[in-house]
Write a structure and sequence with these properties.
Enzyme class: hydrolase
Keywords: Glycosidase, Hydrolase
Number of strands: 13
Protein name: 6-phospho-beta-glucosidase
CATH superfamily: Glycosidases
Strand order of the largest sheet: 1-2-3-4-5-7-10-11
Number of domains: 1
Order of helices and strands: EHHHEHHEHHEHHEEHHHEEHEHEHEEEH
EC number: 3.2.1.86
Largest sheet: 8 strands, parallel, barrel
CATH architecture: Alpha-Beta Barrel
Low-confidence stretches: 305-327
Organism: Companilactobacillus bobalius
Length: about 475
Amino acid sequence: MKFPEHFLWGAASAAYQVEGAYNTDGKGPSIWDEFSKIPGKTKHNTNGQIAVDFYHHYKEDIVLMAEMGLKAYRFSVSWSRILPNGEGEVNQEGLDFYEKVIDELQKHQIEPILTLYHWDLPEVLQTKYGGWESRHTIDAFVEYCRILFDKFGTKVKYWITFNEQNVFTSLGYRWASHPPNVSDSKRMFQANHIVNLANAKAIQLFHQVVPQGKIGPSFGYGEVYPLTSSPADVLAAVDANQFNNDWWLDVYCRGEYLERIMRLLKQMHIAPDVTIEDKKVLQTGKPDFLGINYYHGGTVKAPDTEKVITGKNFDKIDPYLMAGDAQSNTPESQLFQSVENPYLDKTNWGWEIDPIGFRIALRQVYEKYRLPLIITENGLGAFDKLEGGQVDDQYRIDYLNDHLVQVGKAISDGVPVFGFCAWSFTDLLSWINGYDKRYGFVYIDRDDYSPKSLLRIKKKSFNWYQRIIETNGGKLEVR
């Protein structure tokens, strides 16, 4: 097990979850700024108005990144900070902020990895066009991308188009757990198609404007296992992987929709409307690499008549596995039934812990698509406790150690993984789950009810990851 010499040991975040300054220096509202106002949609009605105030603490945080020895930092740009109206006039103060962040990172020899879209669509585009249900939003996105490509194309080498398209389209348009608060499978698959077109056009433009750079989407991937060796369960697992994973990755990497799933969606009258011109566009957007966000996979058995329903529980909601919902007729009910894996433990938030599944996932993705991979998210959300001015998060160390060991083994298997961005560097707003669910190497003194001091406190895992980086993975423990 050996990591490449110039492996990008990093960490990650998203604008809405860390920046705060929601209406500062010309920033316009995003769909998350509006969605979080709906009572009961987020835990304790939390929002990102202040978040952990990276906007005003970015220098302090980057100094901590440098102390840790980070080689890369993945962050997203807030579209509505650049274009308050989603299109049209550029907000120069917004561009200046991200240029300062990029310059500060590079001053400390930290590679910036820029995510173009991490779920925070400008609210104006949602109101004016209907967001990702409109082709007008494709044009707006491409122009937004052009602004960033022109401005930062010579400074930033690695770019992410969309973060977890499978998650934000499903939770936003199918389960009404994220904005725009819609529960309609037909609309979800249509919106997803619009995003696919935007992704392809952005990549095509990037290759024209930034030929020296590298770009790709970031996908929430989890391999799905059969519960037993019964052929019916094995078939259910094949179908589940195609529905949960290949439906998106085939479009990214091959420019076409998976026939098995498309046929089913057409039979159910919920398939997206795809034109001949759309098919040509999708063929133009092959990425240079794939970003993989890995938390867990799933286990399934052959579907039966028992109804699978996932209720809304802030502590258990799982955006990484489309496991069926309360709608009357779902594709899942015809393909598979999700079950618990008897061999895996779970986090405090109900997510299965499966490090070996990480190795399986990386090998499967590479063998299918033959593109370099970067881990754009992996980490443990937990109820960290600050005691005596310290946070002993040995459980996070154990989690990351075991997952990184499997990344190392995947690399030894021949998978070209060139970086690992832990989620996350500091604690942050966990979307609908508030601030109790902590992921960071750095504790932020705030809670769901108050920003408190926003003091930055290094956790035990901070020093551990520092040693891992210093030794290029040499201090990982194979257990």
